[in-house]
Known about the structure:
The protein is mostly helical. 73% of the residues lie in helices and 0% in strands.
Amino acid sequence: MEQTNAVFKTTFDQRSTTTISTEVFDTKKLRKAILETYKNLADYTLAMANNNSNPFYKDTLGVINNGRKYFADLVAKRNGVGANNPQTPITPQI
């Protein structure tokens, strides 16, 4: 009985330590926060590119659009867009 109790305590302690040390994230909350930050950045960059003659903002907007196209192509590839399923083009922000 003492051996069984000792094994139980060891197992319980290890499981408790593992459970307590595991970090839990709210993925939906994180995605929402990241999307909001991305939209603010893209909107700001678009506004500055339209109102400023500085090429920095136009180049930055080009980088953002390039990233959008890259990820849109990844999603399209995963969803099986091909000859039978034409890809919907993504409109750049300029």
